[in-house]
Amino acid sequence: xxxxxxxxxxxxxxxxxxxxxxxxxxxxxxxxxxxxxxxxxxxxxxxxxxxxxxxxxxxxxxxxxxxxxxxxxxxxxxxxxxxxxxxxxxxxxxxxxxxxxxxxxxxxxxxxxxxxxxxxxxxxxxxxxxxxxxxxx
Length: 137
Hints:
The chain is an alpha/beta fold. The chain has one domain (about 10-65, about 75-130): 2,3-Dihydroxybiphenyl 1,2-Dioxygenase, domain 1 (Roll). The chain is about 15% helix and about 35% strand. A hairpin with a 6-residue loop joins strand 2 and strand 3 (about 45-50). The strands form 2 sheets. Strands 1-4-3-2 form a 4-stranded mixed β-sheet, with helices on one face. Strands 5-8-7-6 form a 4-stranded mixed β-sheet, covered by helices on one side. The protein has helices spanning about 20-35, 90-100; strands spanning about 15-20, 35-40, 45-50, 60-65, 85, 100-110, 115-120, 125-130.
């Protein structure tokens, strides 16, 4: 028996990345984060994204074709921004650049949390990368 949506917890349970060129986005996220991504049959242009192993904390999602144009430079962010946990923020930023992404906000300390930077992927989507470091100041 399915419970009504209103009785479910309010945790984020899935994400979707919109892309002008979904196969290019698939390759970007595989190369930068090592995500397991596979085309899903029966849903048109949709790819399932597994960000980690079953049982590990985290959220899985999908990549789909963008149905409208990407935001223009100077447009405000009008979306949820996902932050990806990484072992080494500098290495992650190198991988982003090597795979066609763009650094938008350089790594900065989030005191007591770690090092956070914001980038754009090949599809002009904003995302963050965060290296855990409780000693960050």
